[in-house]
Amino acid sequence: MTQSTNTAMPLLHADRVSSIRSGRVLFSQLQLAVQAGEIWQISGANGAGKSTLLRMLAGLLVPNEGEVRFNGQPLHRVRDDYHQQLLYIGHKAAVKPELSALENVFWQRRLGGDTTATAEQAQDWDVLEQLGLLGLEEEMTGRLSAGQQRRVALTRLWCSTASLWILDEPFTSLDVDGIALLQQRFLQHLSRGGSIVMTSHQPLTDTQLPLQQLTLNSARAEVLL
Amino acid sequence: MWRWLHPYAKPEATYRLVDKLLPWFAALTAVSLLVGMVWGLAFAPSDYQQGDSYRIIYIHVPSAIFSMGAYFGMAVMGVIALVWQIKTAEWSIPAIAPVGAAMTAIALFTGAIWGKPMWGTWWVWDARLTSELILLFLYVGVMALYYAFDDQRTGAKAAAILAIVGVVNLPIIHYSVEWWNTLHQGATITKFERPSIATSMLWPLLISLLGFMLLTISLVMMRFKNELLRHELHRPWAQRVLGTAEESH
Amino acid sequence: MMNSWQLWRSVLVKDLRIAARRRSDALNPLLFLLMVVTLFPLGIGPGPDILARIAPGIIWVAALLATLLGLDRLFKDDYNDGSLEQLCLLPQPLAFTLTAKVAAHWLLSGLPLVILSPVLALLLNLPLDAWWALALTLLLGTPALSALGAIGAALTLQLQRGGSLVSLILLPLFIPLLIFATSAVENAGMGLAVQGQLAILAAISVLTVTLAPLAMAAAVRMSMN
Amino acid sequence: MAFDSFQEFVQMGGYGFYVWLSFFLTFLVIAGVALDALIGRRRLQRQSRTLQRRRQRLSKRQQRQSSPVEESKR
């Protein structure tokens, strides 16, 4: 269950973290050290605690034991710095069904910390085009298909300047083209020294990705209550 | 096997402390309540205006004071829980709330029973009774919020936040109700606040106050012990305390 | 980096835009208020004297209930679609960002009440001297209603059916507002001074609007569990 | 002593019903809260036993899984 003892200080380090959810130990004493330029895939059965681990890494959840460190500092002490460097896309992708695709992209860019943002920008069109959403930009997002909505959410990966991506099931409801596109984007991000932590039920098809694996083993989970 | 769960956790120490103190508090409660009640009921002189009905004061006033006191204590625990992230403080909130609510209920119905011979009706919109009623609503809110959550830790945290919000509002509510009361009833005699009270009546009242304070603390301790065990049920110490630990493990 | 104020504005604009596309959500509490106010003359009888006497109480109680109705949409949608967790992950202070949502809620529920108040006054035969006082109390009091309501909404985010619980925990907190507001309207109807009550209402609103965001932020972070 | 006889003490100058009713109800409420705490402890004991049994079942299963050789012998 423990991996990677690199000598350099890791970018993100989950140090002996444990999670106890509704009376069950999901994982305990877990070690994960993410270096710059690495991509980690967290795998495990349903309910093994993958999403919980990602939320802990993002700082949304406080570990029951242990601590998460960013550049060697506990998260709660460097919260603002960390959140500037972090892009987290959860299960729920923060796409507003009442807004159009373009408005959503604008809103996502705002969440990404873009100041220059005015309502319509050339780069938004580029991103929409790359993701195959051109022609749908004025449509209410709620009326798009699940895969298209996912693509709208993923536009953040093209707008953000964050160096660490934490993605919970980014491939959900994407088609083959979409998955390939996303993996290309991962490669770009990694080549620029960015890091990715993600969960996925599908194996990643792109063999170029220097994927590292962490498997959450629920068989060892203790029942508490 | 349990190595990742703290070998000697703080809640256990807290439990031991409370367990050790509780018998003393219980004994002191019994003594002071007995003295206060017997003195108040049998030895204190009769009131020249209200006769012997005023003897309800020996439970009404202490319970009213400590219904507020318990709420205040609950909010202090809420601040400790949220600011310093101390979980035992968090767990004390569901222990305090029902006891405080019970004190509030006592203050309410003793007030109503007292009102019947004095005013001829069970309920008057008197300032203190109204405040107590609202306080009861606040307690009910805290308890309902706590029990609405499946996850008790989240529930306790929510209750802590609400208790703090409530305690900030409590003085405002109290003041506004008092102001509302004078506005609508004019300067009538307030039956609970006497300008002065004879020393022979005051002493038993003070002892009753002490007794109710100790009673509140003892009841909270009893419930707090349960809360500690409930949250730590999976730890060996809790199983030992409950006598359900197994030998081989 | 984007400053807090820019984020505040974009949250407000986004919320107002979404509300504009779901008009019935914002309108329903107001229609509810209007109907409750209509029910009283039907239940008590249309005698103008008695109506004028109880009008301030009726209007304010109805306003409290209408506020409770509208609280559901304050954070729940954002919580369900993941937008709220994104706000938690921003470097900008959450408590401040959340006030933008409260402001949007007030613009959609409190302000229409103020505008509607002459109609309500007319329906209940409130003397002309009193209706401006009614409008002022609503203007000064409803920000506090929105801010307190937001605490209740944030505390019950995780609960599936939080509606009745929200009323239970909020109504006692609304009592001071009710007392001072109705007394101001009554005094105005009798030609007495109302500055005192209005000052207290304003003070309560200022206090609530400044302190409540802290409780809201704590409650929202707690709900991320 | 404010009363001359026990009879008078019970009557409380005509207010006996009110005084004793409030004392009785107070006692009832306090006893209820205390009793609830005691019952709560019983319930915790029961829960703890259930928990122990579940853990035993689980550890047995894990032992069986980890030592298939023994399994086949039996």
Could you explain the architecture of this structure?
The complex is a heterotetramer of chains A (225), B (249), C (225) and D (74). Chain B is 77% helix and 0% strand. Chain B has 249 residues and is mainly alpha-helical. Chain B has one domain. The longest helix of chain B has 34 residues. Chain B is globular. The N terminus of chain B is likely disordered. With 225 residues, chain C is mainly alpha-helical. Chain C has one domain. Chain C contains nine helices and no strands. In chain C, helix 7 runs parallel beside helix 9. The two termini of chain C are 28 Å apart. Chain D is mainly alpha-helical. Chains in contact: A-B, A-C, A-D, B-C, B-D. Chains A and B meet through strand 2 of A and loops of B.
Q: Major sheet of chain B, described briefly?
A: none
Compute the average pLDDT of chain B. Answer: 84
- What share of the residues of chain A lie within helices? 25-40%
Biggest chain pair contact, residues each?
Answer: B-D, 43 and 34 residues
| Helix run count of chain B | 7
Oligomerization status of the protein chains: heterotetramer
Supply the number of structural domains of chain B.
1
How would you spell out the order of helices and strands of chain B? HHHHHHH
User: Could you estimate the helical fraction of the residues of chain B in percent?
Assistant: over 70%
Q: In DSSP terms, counting alpha (H) and pi (I) runs of 4 or more, how many helices of chain A? A: 6
User: Strand fraction band of chain B?
Assistant: under 5%
Identify the strand order in the major beta sheet of chain A: 6-7-8-3-9
Tell me the total number of β-strands of chain A: 9
Taking pLDDT < 50 over at least 5 consecutive residues as the criterion, the unreliable ranges of chain B are 1-9, 186-191
CATH topology of chain A: Rossmann fold
Distance between the termini of chain A: 24 Å
Quantity of strands of chain B, as a count:
0
What portion of residues of chain A belong to β-strands? 15-25%
Structural classification of chain B: mainly alpha
Protein name (chain A): Heme ABC transporter ATP-binding protein CcmA
Domain ABC transporter (chain A): 12-225
Keywords (chain A): ATP-binding, Cytochrome c-type biogenesis, Membrane, Nucleotide-binding, Translocase, Transport
InterPro entries (chain A): AAA+_ATPase (IPR003593), ABC_transporter-like_ATP-bd (IPR003439), ABC_transptr_haem_export_CcmA (IPR005895), P-loop_NTPase (IPR027417)
